[in-house]
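WARN retry 2 of 3 for item q-0093 after timeout on previous attempt; input resubmitted unchanged.
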Amino acid sequence: MPTEGGKRLHFVSTMDNAPLKRGAAESKGIIGGLGSFVKHAKVFAPLAVGALFAKLGKDVHKFSQQFQIAMKEVQTISAETQRDFKGVSDAVIEMSRKAPDDAIELSKALYQIVSAGYDGAEGMKVLDSSVKAAVGGITETKVAADALTTVMNAWGKTTDDLNNISDVFFQTVKLGKTTFEELSRSIA
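OK item q-0093 returned
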């Protein structure tokens, strides 16, 4: 759509969808096995399996689009993501396999981490620690990232201090009548 002065904004996607396609293929295999079981149970099962595949394809496409948008947002403030969009995107997808949140939510947490001043390898280390803290603290990765970066910035800590910071949060939640999210909000 033309803008004032006739200039246009154009984005070029460099995202590799191979990991998403592999996940879709794995899902199709699982659903295909389930479909063969259902086919013997009902006459109309092939129609149901076809509808299920259509929905799965739409869901994968929607996820891919949302993930790419979230990573493009990170790219606006991250020098590392500007330099290696595919590599950072792949790392976020890989990390999502052990996270309580999906890759889209991890991208949003990474945006918060980069905006707090931790980019590149440091940012990915904070994201990894945030994933672990989210699992242990029964919270979202973005909440854990916010808490960790707030403490690091307020007290001049580094990524080498992440384990100790997380341990203090865990012990406080364990021994107190509070949650990780409540601590995160109050510490800011």
